[in-house]
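Quick one: structure tokens for this chain, please?
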Amino acid sequence: MPILGIDYEKCNNCQICYNACTRYFRRDKEQNKMVFEDPNNLCDSCGRCIAMCKLDAIMYENIGEILTFEEVQDPSTLISYESMHKFMSAKRSIRGFKKKKVPKAVLEKVLDTMKYAPTGANIRTLRCTIISDEDKIKKLSEVVMDAIIASSNPRYSENFIKAKKRGIDTIFYNAPHVMIFHSSNPGDAMNSTIALTYGMLCAQTLGLGTCWIGLAHGVLSSNKEIREKITGIHGNVWGVIIIGYPTQIYYRVPPRPAIKTKGLDNLE
């Protein structure tokens, strides 16, 4: 049980912990203090109580690193809307990479950002497998292409047959790293999408390019033999991206249609 209780030497009985979580915190009127009760060990360790307690009076263990910095109280002071809008609209899917591996420390930064992505009920079951071996990536690309060719999908089969003859990697585009996210939790179908979005935006701050590879995702999801024999993954695959140092440069943001929205015109 990561949340252990309240440090009463620090607590001023402000009850903010109760506002953060009404399930496990309550006010004991007889003792005139807040108490933490979780007899069935159902707390999901979301950490809201820790984050909202100004006096750091929540006791915990084995919950991971706790960060604090001045701007966390008002994240809008970290970056302006204009800068954020430019940064996110400049995000492109990269399909051309330098023949250069990304250092372990840099990939760790991407993964560190991903861990802060929200999940349903704060369930943290998502796992990541990184493939960096050139031959293994090539083998996986060929197997994925073969599976798609065998499916006789009119959109891809003919072009993939031509690409294979020419030795062109139309799955991973010769990227130095393939990141596969997987787990046995069906809820991670959505959780992985959010985490990967966090990771791809983080990667951009580090000078890296990324691309979501839906074709590999589809084949690995549906083909247990390929998934287990080549990647060693047991369970469901929820997302696949490639990552590396880009060779492609964009000079403008391509146009995108507005999201069709109802109810906006009723607002002032």
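The first strand starts at residue 3 and ends at 6.
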